[in-house]
Fold these 2 entries.
Entry 1:
Amino acid sequence: MKTLKILVGIALVLAVSAFALDKVNVSKTDFGYAIGDVATDFSLKNIDDSMVSLADYKDAKGFIVIFTCNHCPYSVAYEDRIIELDKMYKTKGYPVIAINPNNPKAYPKDDFDHMKVRAKDKGFTFPYLFDDGQKIYPQYGATKTPHVYVLQKTDKGNVVKYIGAIDNNYKDAASVDKKYVADAVNALLKGEEVPVKTTKAIGCSIKA
């Protein structure tokens, strides 16, 4: 009888542990936004020292939110293409909002002063915001630089319509044959479904 009680006790402990582990696993996969989610707004410091929120863009139809940084070679390779995206779609209602998610203590070249220098040197045409305290990128679920979220402004809020890479060739812009972000925004401007809603972001891991 005593042995039976011990076995039952062990079984209960294992069951509780398995349940707890399962809850941990669920929470780990429940990370960031999925297609169709409403993205919350933020207020982050721009390189001109102003605070920028999505709500500031009263006439916007949506946003191209790009998590990027100064030092990552993937981000650097995409800088000209990010500028082109902003020039192409800002006047159509989809401006680029760039956010640096990296912890400058982990990578000093990504601090705010270096952000100002990088933006000036490259002639950024869009806000370049600092995710101070790294509070915003986990909400989105960004894991790489660059990592893109195309949002559409609706009565419900800013709805996530695309998540992933900018295109399918970070090495050579001339060899790109799949422009995921451009295709997504073009579809939204036409009132159509986004043809490819998610892709794998290729880049450097975000430095926590």
Note: The first strand starts at residue 38 and ends at 39.
Entry 2:
Amino acid sequence: MSDEPQIPVSPDDETEIPESHPRYESLLTRHRIEHGVDLGITSRQGLIAQGRGEAYDYLLGERTIESADDAARAATAQFLLADHPVVSVNGNVAALVPGEVVELADVTGAEIEVNLFNRTKERMERIAAHLREHGAEDVKGLAGDGEIPGLDHARATVDADGIGAADAVLVPLEDGDRAEALAAMGKAEIVIDLNPLSRSAQAASVPIVDNIIRAVPNVARHARELRDADESELRAIVDSFDADAALAAAEETIRRGE
């Protein structure tokens, strides 16, 4: 038998990566992105984006810092207050946390919409099917009958009754110019991004500087805790959240390494 380490053949086969391995989550996450490319739901550029995010996570200590947890709680309150919340999903999100996204949408009453920079009909359909396999009943994005003003690429294309009509949008992973465009439309925007200096984090109403594999389940956990809260309590959580302070705390953690 070879002494070479064996790589799992599917993202659900974790048996060959021991949980005691100090890089367990990192190795599993990389494999899920790679598997997403094989499935045709993640673009090859997504591999680069994953590596960039992993570097920031390493600097954050690969943990959810206090300011990120506070942001997740504020994000939950924002979503529960919204009349029409939507979770935007790209290829990396679909590969990394498909079941977690479905759970989050279920507990908050949000819709799920696929939105891609490298948009093709086949890839859109594959991602939608992948989400349905993980429990989603309805996935938007395929109609593409709406548009985000100010963008000249495929991410401008949205469903008119999805992101187009949303009053709150969760945008996991860095989304740059679309984050700014959504903010310009007056939508409450929640961004999950490991880089506190990115345009998406800077433009967000609620920036969550955390790894998506921790952040999405964390928002869902807060939602289960807050779903019976009254409007005044939820509003107080949102109003007391300071986005600039949260970003500054994340940057300080990265700089100090503590």
Note: The domain at 66-252 is CATH 3.40.50.12640 (Rossmann fold).
